[in-house]
C-alpha cells in the first residue's frame, strides 16, 4: 500500500496524518493516498498537518529563536558547552558554519511544512469539497507557505521555490536556488491570495486558524522588510480598521501580560492576537519547550514552574535588562533573575508558567502558544511605515506608538508618551526601541535590525565584528552536498 509521504528538497520526511480537530493536532495512523484527499474531512486533516508542522523544534518549537533573537543584542547563550549550546553559540558569536545543526533543522522543517501545503494546494481543486471550504483551505495553506518562504528568504536569501508536491527524492534534486526577489514575489502572491480567501474570524474549535487579518498583517511586514513603505501603510491600516460582527476585530489586550497567559490564548478575553503557534500539554507530543528552555537551571519550582530548566532557548543579556526602564511593567513581565548556587542567573520570564503546583515541569510540554503576530506589532509597524512615507512622524504615527506605550504602563494619559517634535531619524529609533521592549523574545529583534540596516552598527557598538555577508546565514552543507552543481553557498561561507 502506498502511504502519504511528505518530501522536502532536502530529504524525504514521512509524516502521519493529523486529527481533524484544529486544536488537537495529535498524529493519527498513516493513511493511504488511494482513499485520502477526497472529502472535506480529509482536507481539513491535511491542513491541520500543515499547522502541526509549525510546532516542530526546527521551527517555532525552538530553533526559530536561534535565527531571530540569538544573533541580536537581546539574547545570548547561557551555557555554550551545554546541550545545543555549541550550535547556538555560533549564532551568538557570528561564527556560524554551514554544518551547524540548527541550519539543517530549520531548513528541513520549513520545507516539510511547505510540502504539506503543496499537497493540499495540488489536490484540492479536483476534489468535491465545497467552494467555500476550498477557499478557506487554500487560503490557510498559502498563508503557511508564505510564512515559511518569508522566514527562509530573510534568513538564507534566495532558496529553492518548491510549489508543487514532491513524490520522490529525485524530484527534489532538480531544484536550484531562486533569487531572493523571486522568493519575495512568491511570498506576496501567496499572502495576497490568502487574504482574499480567508475569513475574518472563526468560531468554536476553529479559533486560532489563519485569518484574513493575519494575512494582511504579514503582508504589511513583508512590505516593510522590502522597504515598500507605502504598501505597508495600506495593508497595516486595513488590519487596524478591520471590522467584524462585533466591531473592530483587533485591539490591544487590557494588560501586556494577557498575551502570555495560556488561559487567554487565541484572543480569549481580548483582541490582540492575529496568529499563534498552537501548543497543547498532556504528554501527546504537542507541547511547547519554551517553559523548560527559558527557565534557569536549578531554579525554584515555586517561581518558575520548572523544577530544573536548562535556560537554553533564550537567555537574556545584560543589555536588554538595561534597555527596560524600571518603571516599565514589561520589564518584570519579560525578565527576572535569581541567585542560584551563589551565582546570578538571568532568565526570560514571559514563557514561564508557575501553575503546575508541586509537579516539576521539566519536559517540553507547555500549553503556552507562541505569538507570531500581535496587534501591538501591527501598530508599531504602522508607525514606522508612516514615519518613512511622510519623511517624519505625523499625529497618526505618534498615536500608534503611544497606544502601545500607554497599554504597557496601564494608563490612558500622556504620562509615558514619547516626546513630541522628533525628526524622522529620532522617531525611527524610538520605534525600534519600543519594538525591542514590547516584542522581546518573540522572534523580531534580529530581523528588525537587519531590515532597518541597524544590525552592524548596533552589534559593532557591543564589540562584535559583523560582516555584511553575516546578515544572512549559510545554506546547510548537507543541502550543498546532496545536490552538487545545483545548490550554491552564500558568499563568505
From TrEMBL:
Region forming the signal peptide: 1-21
Subcellular location: Cell outer membrane
UniProt cross-references to InterPro entries, sorted A to Z: SusD-like_N, SusD_RagB_dom, TPR-like_helical_dom_sf
Entry-linked CDD domains: SusD
Keyword Metal-binding: no
SusD-like N-terminal domain location: 22-224
Domain RagB/SusD stretches: 347-451
Gene Ontology cellular component list: cell outer membrane
Alphabetical keyword list: Cell outer membrane, Membrane, Signal
Main location: membrane
Family: Belongs to the SusD family.
Record-given protein name: Carbohydrate-binding protein SusD
